[in-house]
Write a structure and sequence with these properties.
With 337 residues, the protein is α+β, with helices and mostly antiparallel strands. The protein has 11 helices and 9 strands. Helices cover 40% and strands 19% of the residues. Residues 169, 171, 210, 248, 251, 282-284, 305-307 line the site of phenylalanine.
């Protein structure tokens, strides 16, 4: 009988220190399992002397009941605790502020590039592109600029080899498109161009938008109409426009297009060098020589072409005085757009 009381005490000791469900399970097996201590005692009941057997049996059954209830109680407690711990560790504080991702904004060059292309596409122009690493043939020769001709000095060129250059303008797209398509053509060709030049108004890489229209009976008046509409769309409907005679080997006649100075309204200032005008693009009627290179008959077709610098137009539109700001990635500058 004493043995039974020691058994009960040792159970109480062990179960009072257990802190986990798996630990509790081990105690359950130790006492109540098939080979457990209590089970063994019950099995051995028949070998207990008959005088004490009833009391012994009653006591061992009480202990068994006691252990069962204690284990169940303990199990419920531990389950509750574990649940509480899990809930606490998984808790999300929905009152915390979220992680802030600052919204980006379109780069000013892309913004103006999109504005330019959408004005022309609304007039029915299609977009074509050409390679930035270009054959000397398309960049110069087919545009009526032969090797060793002084006209090559107009553009400081990065040569990859004798025959390959980084394109200095988007005009080579004119010939590439004419070679593969037949008129009527109304095309703009936006893209990057490269010149070996760097100061407050020049970077070695910049963006141009080329435009050209080829069909039967295209006249200078078509060029004028398209460009005036474009300029009034992008700089405002009251912007004065002037066509000034100029020279490009691939257009004849050629004209540079000026707008009335938007800084001094034509009175004359530092930006327009007191002329009252700002040059914004080059243009002209496509030279018959270019048609011949492209395989078109100059007797059948005529056309106009123009090319503009996107950085220059952006600088004028937003009064930016240093082209390098576009490429320095200073957020104080970029956030303004
Ligand atoms: N390609 C010329 C330049 O980069 C611009 C131009 C394009 C002029 C088309 C006339 C016609 O300076």
């Amino acid at each position: 009988m004493d043995e039974l009381l020691v058994l009960k005490d040792s159970f109480i000791n062990e179960s009072s220190t257990v802190t986990s469900l798996s630990g509790l399970q081990q105690i359950r097996i130790k006492y109540l399992g098939k080979k457990g201590i209590v089970t063994a005692k019950l099995k051995a009941l028949s070998s207990v002397s008959t005088e004490i057997r009833p009391l012994y049996g009653k006591t061992i059954n009480e202990i068994k009941k006691f252990i069962e209830t204690e284990l169940d109680k303990k199990e419920a407690e531990l389950k509750k605790e574990e649940h509480k711990k899990r809930v606490l560790s998984e808790a999300i504080d929905i009152t915390l502020p979220g992680k802030y991702t600052p919204p980006g904004s379109e780069h000013p060059i892309n913004k103006v590039l999109h504005e330019i292309t959408s004005i022309f596409t609304s007039m029915g122009f299609e977009i074509e592109e050409g390679p930035e690493v270009e054959l000397d043939y398309y960049n110069f020769e087919a545009l009526n600029i032969p090797k060793d001709h002084p006209a090559r000095d107009m553009q400081d060129t990065f040569y990859i080899s004798d025959d390959i250059v980084l394109r200095t303008h988007t005009s080579p797209v004119q010939v590439r498109v004419m070679e593969k398509r037949k008129p009527p053509l109304k095309i703009i060709a936006p893209g990057k161009v490269y010149r070996c030049d760097a100061d407050v108004s020049h970077t070695p890489m910049f963006h141009q938008v080329e435009g050209f229209m080829v069909d039967k009976n295209i006249a200078f008046s078509d060029l004028k109409g398209v460009l005036e509409l474009f300029i009034h769309s992008i700089f405002g409907p009251r912007t004065p426009v002037r066509f000034r005679p100029s020279f490009f080997p691939f257009t004849e006649p050629s004209a540079e297009v000026d707008i009335g100075c938007i800084f001094c309204s034509g009175k004359g200032c530092r930006v327009c060098k007191s002329t009252g005008w700002l040059e914004i693009l080059g243009s002209g009627m496509i030279n018959p020589k270019v048609f011949e290179f492209a395989g078109y008959s100059p007797d059948e077709y005529s056309g106009f072409a123009f090319g503009m610098g996107v950085e220059r137009i952006t600088m004028l539109k937003y009064s930016i005085d240093d082209i390098r700001l576009f490429f320095e990635n200073d957020l104080r500058f970029l956030n303004q757009f």
